[in-house]
Structure formats: C-alpha cells, structure tokens
Amino acid sequence: MGDNEILRFLGAIDAELIGHAGAGETVDIHLLGRSALILGYGLTLMTKDVDIVHVHGSRLQAIAVETFGKGTAGAGRHGFYLESVSSGLPPLPVGYQARCVDVPGPWVVIRPKRPEANDLAVTKLRRFHAKDREDLRILCDTGLLDPATLQERLDSAHLFTEEGNEGRIASAENLRTVIAYLEGRRRTL
Q1: Are 36 and 135 contacting, i.e. CB atoms less than 8 angstroms apart?
Q2: Strand 110-114 versus strand 49-53 pairing type
C-alpha cells in the first residue's frame, strides 16, 4: 500500500470531522508506525492500521477513532483502521512534537504530522519484531539516522516511562544492533 491510500483515508477522516468541529477548530494527528514511514518516504509497504498518538481529552480525536477505528464501517470502506496509541508505548522521545514534519494536504480540521526519522526509529526499538527491523533497515538506508542522535532520543524516551528496566534494556540492546548496521559492522538487522 502506498501513500495515496493513506492520504485518502486521512482525507476521509478530515471530511468527517468538518461536521463535528467548531469554527476554526483543528486537531493535530501525530502518526506513528508504518503509515508514518510510508508517508515520509513514499514507500509501498503493507499495513492495516494507521497509528496515532493518543491525546487525552481530544474530542475530535475520539470522534475520529470512533468513526474509523478497528471494526467500524469507516475503516471497512478504506481498508485501514485508526488506532490511538499511548505515547508511552512505544516510548516517544521528549520533544518529538516540535520535530514532527507536517504531512502536506488540503486539510481543514486535521493536521497530520509524522515523526522525524530518528524519533520514528526510536519507536521501533522496544518491540523489534520482524516488521520493526525491516522499518529500521529502511530508515537506516535513507542516511537520515545518526547514532548519537538515536542514543540521545532513546534516553529521553525512557525518562518518564513506568515500564521498568526491561523495556529500557531491550531498547538499548536493539539500538546497539541498529548502530552496528549503520556503521557497516552488520549486514542485516
């Protein structure tokens, strides 16, 4: 699936929210996961969900998830579903919002944004499943990742998490693997 399908899905969300928003009311939609990777780099990858960072108390975001979340008619029409994800899972680096890149489009209500490359990579380190490693390899191959920045962002992502040391240790170990790939000391992730 390419960026056009995801952009159409976001367009449908925007159109739906026009009827629910007050005059001039907007909502930031911070994308995560594969949808952010697809939109950021024009890739054709498979995904069923469009992950967004949950914003507690956002009325418009709640309406969007109720209308386009998993199992809804809106999701069925588009082949994607909207999933609201806690900012603690995956841990997001401190300040990621300020580094997000706007997704261009004729948006009226939503303001879709995707994470900067190093921030997106950090969100893939904790779980490190096969798709996460594939996504990380793609990000590494863009030339946009920097080992020192990745370490700094990973450290900041775990400042306020309550998950204990297991997630931090796994993420740090996985980061070492990614850095070895970036530096050419590994051929695969």
Answers
A1: no
A2: unpaired
The Cα 83–Cα 117 span in angstroms is 21
CB 90 within 8 A of CB 174: no
Residue 94 CB burial class (10 angstroms; 0-12, 13-18, ≥19): middle
Name beta bridge partners: 101: 114
Q: Residue 90 in contact with residue 124, Cβ under 8 Å?
A: yes
Q: How many Å apart are CA 136 and CA 186, to the nearest integer?
A: 13
pTM more than 0.85: yes
Asked if 48 and 81 count as a contact pair (C-beta separation under 8 A), the reply is yes
Structure confidence by residue, pLDDT tens digits, 23-66: 999 999 999 999 999 999 888 888 999 999 999 999 999 999 99
Q: What is the C-alpha separation between 62 and 138, in angstroms, rounded?
A: 32
Spatial distance between the Cα atoms of 137 and 125, rounded to a whole number of angstroms: 12
Query: 100-106 contacts: CB < 8 A, separation 24 or more?
Result: 100/30, 101/40, 103/7, 103/10, 103/31, 103/39, 105/7, 105/10, 105/11, 105/14, 106/11
Per DSSP bridges, beta strands 49-53 and 81-85 are parallel
Q: Which residues make beta-bridge pairs with 53?
A: 85
CB 75 within 8 A of CB 136: no
